[in-house]
Target: Glutathione S-transferase
Amino acid sequence: MAIKIYGDAGSGSLRRVTAAAKIMGIELERVKVDLFKGESQTDEFKSRLNPNGLTPVLEDGDTILWESSAINLYLASKVNSPLVGTTQEERFQVLQWMFWSGEQWRTFTTTIFDERVGKTVMGLPKNESLIEFAEGKIRAAAKVLDQHLEGRKFMVGDALTFADIDIAAPFSQVDRAKFPFKEYPNLIAWHDNLLQSFPAWAETKAEVDNRMESFLASVGVKL
Model:
């Protein structure tokens, strides 16, 4: 039975899973959930797949999982993937950065995306104070990353791990949401290396861009 993944191609969270699956050689059956049409907010979706009304969601037989990091760790366990790290120390370092990414990094990039992109699409006024607060948090986190990445190609060890994938996710919307990443040269160089070295990361970037630009054009929004 195929492993199903539910999500919208414009989602950076889905991209984390689809890119990782390609790198691990795991085939997924994609099930489209149009977030812009509210398809994840239906009673059926919430009762069967994710009570939070969010994607991606994995369905593997009787197993239902949500949250991209949990999904990726589940998939990695099926193939003993080195994306989790290759030593005990590396595995805990990977988890450290994955947890940090959710707490100190992506939560604030999501806030800015919602304010600058989501509210523009909905025709609502932006909360500039909230944007300023979130940008401050992003800059503080980006400074930590920029220092850590000095002389490094990867977040942990000498190879790609889930730490890289989780932290790279906000680059999926960087141009649309105007995150201040360009102020941090080591961060930019690290992400450029991911795009150049891992075709799956570049391919999924194109997928996100195509979906987002097509949707924005369909509703007449220019950011």
Summary: The chain has a mean pLDDT of 97.
